[in-house]
Amino acid sequence: MTLVTRFFRFWYDFIVGDDWTVAAAVVAALVVTAFLGRHRVAAWWVLPVVVVLTLGLSLRRSLGRRGS
Amino acid sequence: MGSVFLVTAAFLASAVEMVEALTIVLAVGVTRGWRSALAGTAVATLALAATVAGVGPALVRIPIDDLRLVVGVLLLVFGLQWLRKAILRASGHIALHDEDAVFRRELEGARAAGAVGRGGVDWYAFTIAFKGVFLEGLEVAFIVLTFGTAQGNIPLAAAGAAAAVVLVGVAGMLVHQPLSRVPENTLKFTVGVLLTTFGTFWSVEGTGTAWPGNDAALLGVLGYALAASLGLTMYMRYERRRLTAPAYLAGAGGSER
What we know:
The structure holds 2 protein chains of 2 kinds. By secondary structure, chain A is mainly alpha-helical. Chain A is built from 3 helices and no strands. In chain A, helix 2 (about 20-40) packs antiparallel against helix 3 (about 45-65). Helix content of chain B is about 80%, strand content about 0%. Chain B is built from 9 helices and 2 strands; from the N terminus they run ααααββααααα. A two-stranded antiparallel ribbon of chain B has the order 1-2. In chain B, a hairpin with a 2-residue loop joins strand 1 (about 115-120) and strand 2 (about 120). Chain B starts with a helix and ends with a helix. At the A-B interface, helix 2 and helix 3 of A face helix 3, helix 5, helix 7 and helix 8 of B.
């Protein structure tokens, strides 16, 4: 592994951690929030809902991994 | 209100990481001597302070809405990582962080390393202490920088973190053993909830979307994040009991036949 790869790998592990889907869901929810906001729809609730659902799903997936 | 949360989050995050760093430094100091262990600790602390001092002013120049979006996303993703791990530990799915076990492991490693001194410096002790303090401290520096810039008060966040460093450091010097009684996971859970709350609040604001009740919504988000996290912990505890119940295990064994 090159130094550059190791550098980016470190920051990826540091910020994103074990489950990349959590980060992806957060970004997707914010894109939806911004999109709805542009169309004058109250969208403040999208991210809180997505955060709890994603965290729950991530925890459930970890159950499966540990169980298998 | 924001300042209280800012200091609390920085203080608690710093306390958790300082307890972990202290265990490493103590193990190395006890086995290999204090001079090089403390030198490694001092250099790591200076490197962390330089990181905060160097990156902080650059972050302050970013327009506040863009900053809150970026910082909000980073804090939220980072906070959810802490929260996920704290919930898995609180529900018994992964082991709690055991400072005594870490201390014993570090002691064995330090004893087995042999003499690697050059120029009066024990480089093993220096490197292990430096890495321990720098890597644990980097998470605190990240929280101080992101939280501090978004609230417009890096010095206050740094003061909260520094207070924890002093408190844990003094406690460590007094007891001279790992602070295994500190409820690390509860602190980590609390910090995770705070980071998730502020990350959610700021990133939604950063998209240009207004919260109902503006800043007052922060308390609502905090209550929601706390209730959801406690609910998920209870659910994970229930799942653990279910998965380890004799009837389930017998059923799992039966299906394999």
